Amino acid sequence: MERLQKVIANAGYCSRRKAESLILEGKVYVNGNLVTELGTKVNNEDIIVVDGVTLNKQVNKEYYLLNKPPGYICSVKDEKGRKVVTDLIDTKERIYPVGRLDYDTTGALILTNDGDFANYLMHPSNEIEKTYLAIIEGIMTTEEIYELKAGVTIDGEKIVPRRVKIKKRDSLKNKEKVELTIVEGKNHVVKKMFSRVGHPVIKLTRERIAFLDVKGLQSGEYRLLTNSEIKILKKLKKGK
Description:
Layout: E1 2-3, H1 4-10, H2 16-24, E2 28-30, E3 33-34, E4 41-42, E5 48-50, E6 53-54, E7 63-68, E8 96-97, E9 106-112, H3 115-122, E10 130-137, H4 142-150, E11 152-154, E12 157-159, E13 163-170, E14 175-182, H5 189-196, E15 201-209, E16 212-213, E17 222-224, H6 227-234
Helix pairs in contact: 1-2
């Protein structure tokens, strides 16, 4: 017997966090009965229907690294009809993005149908590093850099970056390029951090997730993760 949300995630339908939301929203049926309790446990014989789709529990696990282009939503579908990142991956499996990048943000994005793997990478306690390259308005003062490094409060939570590095300053155009490494995965967090110190982001790219970068991948291109990369990612838990 396993928890319902874990079975949904392992079947490749969505991440475990999203599965929990679907259960609470009343979109999950087990053997024809509506289930809204997160503690519900099921077995291999149970028939599970999520948002009208009957789960196929026998799926091939797939893991992709995408160089996300601008103009794509990090989702499997969009009610407004915008393009979604899963459109870029040629696969018959039901994959989904691990975490989110904004519509106009580019760079490294992992997609998979392995719910446990996705949940592991996104869980805050594992502190998976994500490195961004931001082009910001204006030139940060020494005090503003110190303020950013010391941590800024976003939505009631203090966010302290692992690293802040000025890559390039352009005084004539009044902008600079800054590399920022964080472990948080909240929506718009990098843009909010720079805005908090008075420098809105003009352009944002995620350069790396842990040790993975998109070198060699053009915008919109992707590749399969190697077995070695998957094993290393699974061992990146805090303290290891």
